[in-house]
Every structure is written in C-alpha cells, then in structure tokens.
Amino acid sequence: MKRYSTVLFDLDGTLIDTSEGVIGSVLYTLGKLGYPTGEFGDYLPFLGPPLTYGFGVVCGVNEDDVPRAVEVFRKKYIGEEWFLRSTVYPGIPELLGSLRQAGFRVAVTTSKLQLAAEKVLARTGLLDLFDLIVGSADADGRETKEGVLRYALRSLAVPPADAVLIGDRKYDAEGARGAGVDCIAALWGYGKKEEFDPYPVVGFATTPADVLQTLLS
Fold first, then answer.
1. Sign of CA dihedral 120, 156, 3, 49
2. Is the pTM of this model over 0.85?
3. pLDDT in tens, 40-57
C-alpha cells in the first residue's frame, strides 16, 4: 500500500461504541414527539448518517417534524450529556499509539458536533492522541462528511492523496470519495462489508490491529 502521511478517523463505530447514548436519545426523542418506538437493535442503522437522514429515513419521522426531532435529540444527547455513554473499542489506544510512533499524523473527522466529539474523546482518554479534532458544524462547509474531511485537510495542510480515512459506514466511504481521500473500511463497527461494495475502498480491517498492518504493508 502507498505511504500516507495522515490517518483520519471516523468516531462513532470506529473509535468508540456510542450506541447506548445515541439510540437511547433516539428512543427518548421519538417518545417525546409521539412516535411509536421499536427495539434497540432496530435503530442501529441510525448510527453513522446525518441526524436528518436518521430521523427521516431510519425512524420514519414526518418531514415537517424532523427539525424538531433533531432539536429534541440534541437537547438530550448533548445537553444532558448522553454522548458520554460511550466505550472505546479494544485495540484503539494501541493502534493510535503505534501510528504516532510510526510517524503518521492522526485526526478525528466526525459527523458528531465538535463540542460533543471533544468531550467524549476527553472522557475516554483519547483526546491527546490526536493532532486535530474536526466535528460537524452549521458553518465552514462542515454540514456533511465530505465537508468535514475537506476542512480537516485544509487545517492540516495535507493534500487529499496523502490522507486515508478509517470509517465503519458507507457514509464514510462516500464522503472520502467526494473529498478525494482513500478509505479503509473498519468492519468492527456498525457497518457491513457489503455496504462498501459501490465504493473504491483500499482495504478492509476486521480489527484495529489490521489497520496498522494494512498501512505498513
């Protein structure tokens, strides 16, 4: 594999398991808005895409109610700090340490709001292992995964060809393709291997250790 200078990481489903906080907040939101709720596992597809897609498509919320659903969700997830109900995947701290030791720059590029991303990384002890944290925002072109990636590349002064994204969902691969960044699929997260079929991923990693092996091969 070609040598990259920079490794970009998705957050939810790649570095940390955020399903308890996210899905708990989804169930709360649906109940608050008067929508029926299903089982915990029914909402796993909510993890990864933007909130508007999650509520509109995954949860079946009426289009007119989606903005309110996003507002209620953020109040629960961010305001009441349910985003802290997260755990680090085994092997992630070791992977990050090895990448830094090998000379890679490492950054987080996530669709999670910037403040929530920073707080959960601090809580889990990962914050200081990154050169940069970039979350979504309603400005600076960071409304989409592609926009987050482009913002990170500009901030790091890294050409797209010198960076690779590690992500667990097709939305990561889609954003990477739009930003001109290669992508390695993280199969320990929420996504399935087949959802990456339409995208030109450069590798598949079943465990975090596989990422290091792939990058150094």
1. positive
2. yes
3. 989 988 987 788 989 999
